[in-house]
Structure formats: structure tokens, C-alpha cells
Amino acid sequence: MPWSGVSCWCQGVAGCLTLLQCWIYEYFPGFRPSHFEPPVVGPDEAWASRWIGQPATGSVADPSVRLAFYRRALDSLTPSDVCWTPFHQRPHQAVRRSLYTGVIRFADIGEFYDPARCLRQFGYRQMVPPPPSRPQRADRPEAPGGYVIRIPESFDAAWDALLSHMVHIDMYSQPWRRYPYETTVDYLDLFVAHSHCRVLQDDGDADRLVDSAAVRFDH
Q1: Does any domain span residue 179?
Q2: Three-class SS state of 158
Q3: CB neighbourhood size of 101 (10 A)
Q4: Could you report the per-residue pLDDT of 115-132, keeping only the tens digit for each?
Q5: Domain named Aminotransferase-like plant mobile: which ranges (predicted)?
Q6: pLDDT at 209 (0 to 100)
Q7: Considering its fold, how many domains does the chain have in total?
Q8: Cβ-count burial of 167 within 10 angstroms (0-12 exposed, 13-18 middle, 19+ buried)?
């Protein structure tokens, strides 16, 4: 069946941006609102309620300056600056379906999801993941903004057959990681070879950098 997907040409984000912002605060403490300590939430409260919207104070109005600052902040992050398991030390024990591997679909939008590619977020040492799943066919229209993929019908039923479509996390449990961001050596080689290790790529962006005192995280 044909499904739509997203692409790098998209210039907007749809959905609940508040939840996305809360996700950023949890995983990247350095981007949290200044001078704000999130309260402890009760068992029946939404986790996102830890974060209260605050008006921007002392922020730089020029969007390009703010963008340059955030790019610099991202490039300055170290592995220890990331909270790898903010919600649970073993998230899959609390939400078993998070180990599902396959296509996640909403209406006619589908994206491949594979927990083996982010094992550190499950409390395990990151190893080289298996090759990603591939659609039967993918077509990119002339107009940028998306593409159309065709996948086997069996992929559409995978969500309802969890036991046969999930990552077996036990194979990653030994040895236990010694620190939250531990990886195997071969994974780092793969990451450097196939990932964008830095956001800033040219001197034009570097000319726009500003000191952290000029841009506030209160927004």
C-alpha cells in the first residue's frame, strides 16, 4: 500500500509542539528555562506538566542570531550533557510496546521505527544496529516536501503482532553499560562515517555566533 513520508526539505513541524519542547527539556537539561526547577509529578499527572510556559525575557529578537546560538549550543554538547533515560532507567519495562520495530503509521503517514538504533535511550550500550528496513518502492515527487513509499501488506499488520515484531533487548543486556552514553568502538566508526557530527558547516554561520549571555532559554 502507498504511504507518505517526510523529507529533509520540509520547513515546518506539525503536531503538538509543546510535547516536542518538553521532550527536549528532558533529554537536554542545558536547554531548559533558566532558573527553573521542574517539580516532581504524581503518578496520575502528565509528565509534561513539569514544564510551565514562561514569557521570553531578555531574548534576542533577530531569529538568525538565535538560530546561530542554538546551532553552536548543539555543537558544543558532549555525551555527558544528555540525559539518556529521563523517564525510566529501563523504559521498555514500563512501556513494552516501545520495543516494537517496524512502521509506525498515522492515517497515510508512515515512518520506520527501530529501537536498536537508539539503545542508549533504553539503558543499554549502543552497538551497530542491523540494516534498516526498506520499502518495496519509494517515489519522490518533483515538488519538495515529501515522498511516497510502498511497503508490503505484512508491515501494516506488524503493530498488532508485537511479539513477532519487537527488538529482543536481552541480546544487548550483557555487558551492562558502564556509563549512560557508552558505545562499542565499531559503532563510533559507523556514526562518524554516516552521520552529520556538527550542525555548523561553514564560516557564514560562524560569523553569526553570539555569546550565551545574549540569548536566554526562557521561551
Answers
A1: yes
A2: helix
A3: 19
A4: 999 889 988 889 898 887
A5: 13-189
A6: 42
A7: 1
A8: buried
